[in-house]
Each structure stands twice: as C-alpha cells, then as structure tokens.
Amino acid sequence: MDSLSYKTLSLTPETIKKEWVVIDATDQVLGRLCSKVAKLLRGKYKPCFTPNMDCGDNVIIINADKVIMTADKMNKREYLRYTGYPGGQRSYSPADLMAKSMKKTIKAGKHPLYIKVVKGMLPKTRLGAAQLNNLYVYNSAEHPFTDVDAKVIDINKLK
Predict the structure, then answer these.
(1) Are strands 79-82 and 89-92 parallel, antiparallel or unpaired?
(2) 113 close to 94: Cβ distance less than 8 angstroms
(3) Which of 3, 53, 112, 124 is 20 to 30 A distant from 99 in Cα terms?
C-alpha cells in the first residue's frame, strides 16, 4: 500500500466554503440546541474540519422565544457577572435575558441568552469570538437574510 496516498487535508482561507443554515428553535431544549449550534459554528460536522480555521457555517436561529428549558430552569438558574467594582456582582436568570431580547435597544440578531450559552461552548480565543459572530438569532420566523441561499435543517437529525 502506498503510504503517501493518505494525506491530511488542512483548509486554507481560500478553500473554505461556508454555508448558511436556518434552524427552527420551536419546542427545542436550549442547551441541546446550542451544543449542536456550537458544533455547526466550529465546522465539526464537515469532513474537512480544521481546528485552527473558521470553517464553520453561518447559523440563523428563528423562533428563539419558543425555546424551552427543562424543569424550572428558566426562572431558577442564575448567571453571574461582575462589574469590576466592590459589590458589583450581578445575577440574572434566563427569563431576564429572554425579556431583554424583546427590547428594541438590543442589536438585531444578537439574542443575549443564546449568545451567553453558545459562547460558553466555543473556544475562549479570538477564533471563538470570530465564530460567534456567525450566529444570528431572531425571536420571530422572519429574518433579513432572505437573499442568501440558506438551507433549512432539522436540528434533531444531527448527532
């Protein structure tokens, strides 16, 4: 057998083919949905995955307000952040972030709950920050990316 016939392919920025994917979040469990979205953003479902390149897809999540959390985690789970000042620890629940997403001051496509959850599943590097910019989340079924050729996938079929 020729040992040179099996070569590891590493992608370059010129050979990366990014796709647009639309996911419906209706009646999906938040953590399970976001773990699959993180894999799509990283490109781990592609046969040509390269860990040091942004080879993942652009993901659009629609109907984000219809997501569920098991038990009563929507109200009882607590996220913490710290302002940097003494006594500056702030806590908020997923229900608070969901209510915050309805405000007009939030940038379109940047849902605070989904950003928080998916960000924790991506690498904590500049590459992870760049991959997070490929996520767009909308509370309704309408999104402004109708001109791109996005394919609708069933998230339950992914492993």
Answers:
(1) antiparallel
(2) yes
(3) 124
